[in-house]
Amino acid sequence: MKLLEGKNVIITGASRGIGTGIARVFAEHGANVAFTYSSSEAPALALEKELTEKGVKAKAYKSNAASFQESEALVAQVLEDFGGIDVLINNAGITKDNLLMRMGEADFDDVIEINLKSVFNMTKAVQRTLLKQRKGSIINMSSVVGVKGNAGQANYAASKAGIIGFTKSIALELGSRNIRCNAIAPGFIETEMTEKLDEKVVQSWREGIPLKRGGTPEDIANACLFLASDMSSYITGHVLNVNGGMMT
Ligand code: NAP
């Protein structure tokens, strides 16, 4: 059964990692996928081609999610190209880790702007469209770190905890219009980014997880699929932990 047949979806930051996984699963479920990237043009164009070959409409857009103006322009362009928006996934994110002692002001500001302000920018930009159609699902990518904190990631944890507060507030504001807003808090997800880490360290992380493995982009994509589809039509303001039992 295709759960998103004919739905138009925007995913920020889908040129690699979790975003690419979401785009693939969504296209397999019949969604038309508009997605953004920051600088990885070649992988973005390759993904656009791959998704189009699955028989859906797909388009890559270079757009900085941290920019209010670029987010507004992106949504206007997607509306022109796709004719509507049903689902927004705020996935774009970065890390600039350091202990507070060594964290510069720019490291804090960049992470807050790209991870948190982007969620405001994109949600504002799609709001009018979703309100008019009295239906929509917004999914924001938080993190286990936003739920529990992490030494060396004060900037990142603050951005991801901020996303949770934003998500719950929007769920309260827009619920009466049948617009749902939920967050996903992934645990340790193995992507190209984590491939660069020391295998011994990664193995020790895996052993500490009750399900004894890191998550995959598909694990997160399947949770997004549920929250984007009508299968979750009575769920809003929720933070879904997808972490192999890490918090248990
Ligand atoms: P990733 O592999 O580093 O990919 C990040 C994506 O965001 C890329 O497509 C990147 O585009 C895009 N991006 C970066 N800055 C952007 C900007 N200013 N505007 C638009 N797009 C931008 O990251 P990931 O591991 O897939 O993580 C995806 C999300 O899940 C992030 O929000 C992250 O915080 C969250 N998360 C990840 C994990 C994990 O273990 N991996 C755990 C918890 C939460 P370019 O390729 O062009 O740079």
UniProtKB/TrEMBL annotation:
<feature type="binding site">
    <location>
        <begin position="13"/>
        <end position="16"/>
    </location>
    <ligand>
        <name>NADP(+)</name>
    </ligand>
</feature>
<keyword id="KW-0443">Lipid metabolism</keyword>
<keyword id="KW-0276">Fatty acid metabolism</keyword>
<dbReference type="InterPro" id="IPR036291">
    <property type="entry name" value="NAD(P)-bd_dom_sf"/>
</dbReference>
<keyword id="KW-0560">Oxidoreductase</keyword>
<comment type="pathway">
    <text>Lipid metabolism; fatty acid biosynthesis.</text>
</comment>
<keyword id="KW-0275">Fatty acid biosynthesis</keyword>
<dbReference type="Pfam" id="PF13561">
    <property type="entry name" value="adh_short_C2"/>
</dbReference>
<feature type="binding site">
    <location>
        <position position="91"/>
    </location>
    <ligand>
        <name>NADP(+)</name>
    </ligand>
</feature>
<dbReference type="InterPro" id="IPR011284">
    <property type="entry name" value="3oxo_ACP_reduc"/>
</dbReference>
<dbReference type="GO" id="GO:0051287">
    <property type="term" value="F:NAD binding"/>
</dbReference>
<comment type="similarity">
    <text>Belongs to the short-chain dehydrogenases/reductases (SDR) family.</text>
</comment>
<dbReference type="InterPro" id="IPR020904">
    <property type="entry name" value="Sc_DH/Rdtase_CS"/>
</dbReference>
<dbReference type="GO" id="GO:0006633">
    <property type="term" value="P:fatty acid biosynthetic process"/>
</dbReference>
<feature type="binding site">
    <location>
        <position position="189"/>
    </location>
    <ligand>
        <name>NADP(+)</name>
    </ligand>
</feature>
<feature type="active site" description="Proton acceptor">
    <location>
        <position position="156"/>
    </location>
</feature>
<dbReference type="GO" id="GO:0004316">
    <property type="term" value="F:3-oxoacyl-[acyl-carrier-protein] reductase (NADPH) activity"/>
</dbReference>
<keyword id="KW-0521">NADP</keyword>
<dbReference type="InterPro" id="IPR002347">
    <property type="entry name" value="SDR_fam"/>
</dbReference>
<dbReference type="InterPro" id="IPR050259">
    <property type="entry name" value="SDR"/>
</dbReference>
<feature type="domain" description="Ketoreductase">
    <location>
        <begin position="7"/>
        <end position="192"/>
    </location>
</feature>
<protein>
    <recommendedName>
        <fullName>3-oxoacyl-[acyl-carrier-protein] reductase</fullName>
        <ecNumber>1.1.1.100</ecNumber>
    </recommendedName>
</protein>
<comment type="function">
    <text>Catalyzes the NADPH-dependent reduction of beta-ketoacyl-ACP substrates to beta-hydroxyacyl-ACP products, the first reductive step in the elongation cycle of fatty acid biosynthesis.</text>
</comment>
<keyword id="KW-0444">Lipid biosynthesis</keyword>
<feature type="binding site">
    <location>
        <begin position="156"/>
        <end position="160"/>
    </location>
    <ligand>
        <name>NADP(+)</name>
    </ligand>
</feature>
<comment type="subunit">
    <text>Homotetramer.</text>
</comment>
<dbReference type="InterPro" id="IPR057326">
    <property type="entry name" value="KR_dom"/>
</dbReference>
